[in-house]
Amino acid sequence: MLSRRFAFLDHPGPLAFAHRGGAAEGAENSAAAFERAVALGYTYLETDAHATSDGVLLAFHDHTLDRVTDRRGRISELPYRAVRRARIGGVHEIPLLEDLLGSWPEIRFNIDVKEAAAIAPLAEAIRRTNAYDRICLTSFSDERLVLARAAIGREVCSALGPRAVAALRAAATTSGYGRLLARLSRAGVPCAQVPVGFRGLRVTTRRLVRTAHAIGMQVHVWTINDPARMERLLDLGVDGIMTDNVTGLRDVLERRGLWHPGHLAA
Hints:
Blueprint: E1 15-19, H1 31-40, E2 44-51, E3 57-59, H2 80-83, E4 87-88, E5 92-93, H3 97-103, E6 108-113, H4 119-129, E7 135-138, H5 142-152, E8 157-158, H6 162-173, H7 178-186, E9 191-195, E10 197-198, E11 201-202, H8 206-214, E12 218-222, H9 227-236, E13 240-243, H10 246-255
Parallel strand pairs: 1-2, 1-13, 2-6, 6-7, 7-8, 9-12, 12-13
Antiparallel strand pairs: 2-3, 4-5, 10-11
Helix pairs in contact: 3-4, 4-5, 6-7, 6-8
Organism: Nonomuraea thailandensis
GO biological process, one term: lipid metabolic process
EC number: 3.1.4.46
């Protein structure tokens, strides 16, 4: 099975991802949010990669500081000496992604590469922390994913890009896509990270999950905050859920006997 090649995916499932550390329960992408998620028992943290104008790698979602910090400006146009003064929610420093990787060698990080400028510093951070087996790359750009894999230079877990997700959905809904599925399988990408729906189209269906599983690929769904929807997705057989509602997902999995907390849980 393709997904079994990757240590990132070897935790007992379904995998529970704390999206931006659990953005519904703390300041998103802050060290405090990540620490709380780890204390709850989360082994998987989802975060994002941006770089400042001088190449410092941040765990931060937006292209600008404006929405979640007390400063303004586009991150890629600001040096780190300016960005480091920003506070998430007026309180929390923006964490360096390398610091997160180095602080928790037992934790897996699902990293959304937000721009091409983040690729080189991300590859270097992964090398310096020897995090190859505990990161998974994702992006809304197929090209960016290709560049990131090449920059890292070793096989690492990554998710399908948007064009490949569209191909997987087509294969799940229409016959005659056998060769396409074979190409997806040969690509060596072990997971599809998908929304429930997109622009009025259903994406996460039982057929899509079965189609992915048939080629050895896991399906992780984002970003699910409603416990009832979490239950329905688990009934479909998805392999992972990303959530801002970290307490809610933990409770759902506990009721099903499927919560497998990391050893750093409080």
